[in-house]
Write a structure and sequence with these properties.
There is one protein chain. The protein has 118 residues and is mainly α. It has one domain: Up-down Bundle (de novo design (two linked rop proteins)), CATH 1.20.1440.60. Keywords: Ribonucleoprotein, Ribosomal protein.
Amino acid sequence: MDDLKIRRKCEDMITYGYGALRQFPKAERHVLSQEIRQSMWSLLRLIIICNRRYYKKTTMQDLDAELDLLRSQVRVAMQLEYLPFKKYEVWSRLLDEVGRMVGGWFKSTNRGAGKHEA
């Protein structure tokens, strides 16, 4: 019941991300790498909270902002050459899938809210 597709996708993304973060230089393991790990867990936390809340709009906006932050962090890691381009591509694809699912979830929630208002 609680096993949402978006939750599983996010967990897959976290698993992939942890593998990619192991290749970061030692000096960055507790800086950018730590920030990325924290963003990934925040994203999963917001998905779980959003699933449990009746009024989801604010949490979904937070979820969207966290996803945007994570995309930027991964892009910066690639630009600083901490992350190989191939891993960046795969990770970005996983983030895009999660982003599309968040967008669809947001739209379906808004449609449901519109029914109650009409």
